[in-house]
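Throughout our pipeline, every protein is held as a single compact record rather than as scattered files. This encoding replaces a full spatial description with a residue-level series of whole-number codes. The remainder of this section carries one protein's record, kept here as part of the documentation.
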Amino acid sequence: MPQRQNKSVPRSFIFLFSCLVLVGCARHQTNDWQGYVEGEYVYVATSQAGRLDHLSVARGQHIAVGAPLFSLESANEIAAQQQAQNQLKTAQAQLADIQSGRRPQELAVTRAQLTQAQIAFDRAKIQLKQFEALYPAGGISKLQLDDARAAAKTTAAQVEELQSQLTVAQLANRSEQIRAQQAQVAAAQSVLAQANWRLAQKNVNATRAGLVFDTLYREGEWVNAGTPVVRMLPPEGVKIRFFVPESILGQLKVNQAITLHCDGCASDLSAHISYISTNAEFTPPIIYSNETRAKLVYMIEAKPNLVDAPKLHVGQPLSVKLS
């Protein structure tokens, strides 16, 4: 029988196969990237200017919602508030006086004047009756009779006038006057509200919990209106930034879960992708081709769980991988 010949694989084929394996390995994409922690800060300021009297927090301090941050000198605002309060009290007192009519003492004076006028009218009527009886007999002149008649009419008019005054005094004032004074009260209330708001602006509290990342003024320094005094980093302001190659971009989507690993962390942390950049980063001015596409990277941002955010520090390096 003829002997079988041993067919050896050519060395050139082995070399070519090895190169293909290496190329395939080079094109294998890992789902593990390097990233770092960034912060979106909240700059706390006030609309009022003044001297910084008290700084209630320090750098690195974690505070809760409503915790006092700082206060500015407020002597001028306190004085304005007191003035507005006094103006409101005056306007309210005037409104109550208009609505209640005349005071009892004034009504008593009018009643006394009415009594006197009634007595004078009664006397004038008696005298007129006597003169009318005497005139036909020639006991008085025509002029005396006319004077008696005029006196009776005058006293009657005085009685009628005082009766009308007493009736009007017992009524509330006109609705137009009441509405005008009510408008004065409303204006005084608005002035007081503005004074209260300006005074409240001098004492600033935290509107959200978080880390006091930095304080920008010292006690005793002048702070301009709108100038930040405290820089805070709330838990929702902590984010992770990392970059992925163009070839892996299609596998990622917003709200996708990822896992974070950091040195010194007791365990891995969970996060979710919050933003995928639409523009390539660190791209040189080259013509895109199959060979150069691998140089494209895209920025990805992710948000950790709020309970894990305080464990991370701005600038801290992380390892990121898909969950």
Q: What stands out?
A: The helical segments are 11-27, 75-100, 104-134, 142-169, 175-200. The chain has a mean pLDDT of 84. Residues 217 and 229 are 6 Å apart (CA to CA).
